[in-house]
Amino acid sequence: xxxxxxxxxxxxxxxxxxxxGSLALGGLALGDLLRLRAKATEAGNKPTDTSVILIxxxxxxxxxxxxxxxxxxPSDYRGECQPIETVAPxxxxxxxxxxxxxxxxxxxxxxxxxxxxxxHAGGAGRFLSGYNPLRPLDPLAxxxxxxxxxxxxxxxxxxxxxxRYVANANNVYGGGSASLGPAYxxxxxxxxxxxxxxxxxxxxxxxxxxxxLDDRRALLGAIDGVRSDVDRSGVMEALDKYNQQxxxxxxxxxxxxxxxxxxxxxxxxxxxxxHRWGQRALLARRLVEAGSSFVTMQMQNPSVxxxxxxxxxxxxxxxxxxxxxxxxxxxxxxVATLIEDIYERGLDKKVMVIVSGEFGRTxxxxxxxxxxxKVIQPGRDHYPGAMSVLVSGGGMxxxxxxxxxxxxxxxxxxxxxxxxxxxxxxxxHLGIDYREAVPDHNGRPTxxxxxxxxxxxxx
Length: 459
Prior knowledge:
The structure is a single chain. The strands form 6 sheets. The protein has an 8-stranded mixed β-sheet with strand order 6-5-7-1-8-13-4-14, sandwiched between helices. A two-stranded antiparallel ribbon has the order 2-3. It has a single domain (about 15-205, about 250-459), classed as Alkaline Phosphatase, subunit A. By secondary structure, it is an alpha/beta fold. The protein has helices spanning about 15-20, 30-35, 75-80, 100, 120-130, 145-155, 205-230, 235-250, 255-260, 265-270, 275-290, 320-345, 420-430, and strands at about 50-55, 85, 90-95, 105-115, 165, 185-190, 295-300, 350-355, 360, 370, 375, 380-385, 385-395, 400, 405, 410-415, 435-440, 445. It has 13 helices and 18 strands.
């Protein structure tokens, strides 16, 4: 079994803390983040109002138990799950995704994406950056990944009252900002939105405190004018600018309201599911609706009775089919309701939803003795040769199955696609030219992706 994802222990000093992406949500520590974003707005950038929600299935979901079942394959390939038809003609999904089946006309399934990296870090880095990782086992990507790239490229083009890039974890294992630096890592909301006490620290201010901050801001503005006149280097002006942005965000009614999930109708919250995954999906919708450009919500451990782990369902980790029967109904409700909610609110042109992990699972089942169960049980191992990706919204034509795999789910059969094609599609939706370049660690211009073209069926 390959090495499983590990959580960063977290260095102690502030600089390392920021470099690891663990951005404090309180005080003016946010000013340190914003201060790092000292790149002038490029001339000619046209503002857009599009956004992306990435539901990231860390560990690698099995395409054979979700979106690409093979009921005619030999038993050691097809497994126990059966496909069901959906409202989209010609599209089937797993029997444990009945809510998906009812909204299938609002999403597309891509069944023919593949790449060549079969470990978690390397697979995530390859999928999210478009580049072959230099160090496939490194938990931090060596090339800038999707979220940080969006944060950088949309700098100065979106409402500063909302963070451009939000995530529920410090980093995707195998992802990161690489040469872009820590300034473009996400605004992290790590707490469970299903917790009745869920709140984002210091984004909810008492009215009298907000008035005091507004007064302080006006006073600092007057003082800063004098300081800037004295400071000929421009350093003081830059420092003042980003501290001002920090205050703007901390006192933003828009940001405070977007993060306040308690404002949602309890019936809608019930529809999403009163669990971590459901409420994360709902929070993601609130954030993009309010103006965030890119939101990553990782769905690893759903925090429900039964102790279900992440999607890395080797036989040593758990029973493939028992896990599937327990996990998919939770996943089904969260994702299907998110898609339905986006369409009901008229956000389907503005918001693109992507549901994916770093790779698929081996088409052939690999039984082994479970670490906990101590008995032989079914599982599937890492497999980047075939995977399925769900995409919804984005103003695209939906209800499509794009590409196919061979009869045993081993490799793409037609319309073979690269992760870069999906990245190019996402960048296009966000108004970013995927042919643009950013500096590498040596300052040399490096294209956002080394190849790939937008997927025509999604345009």
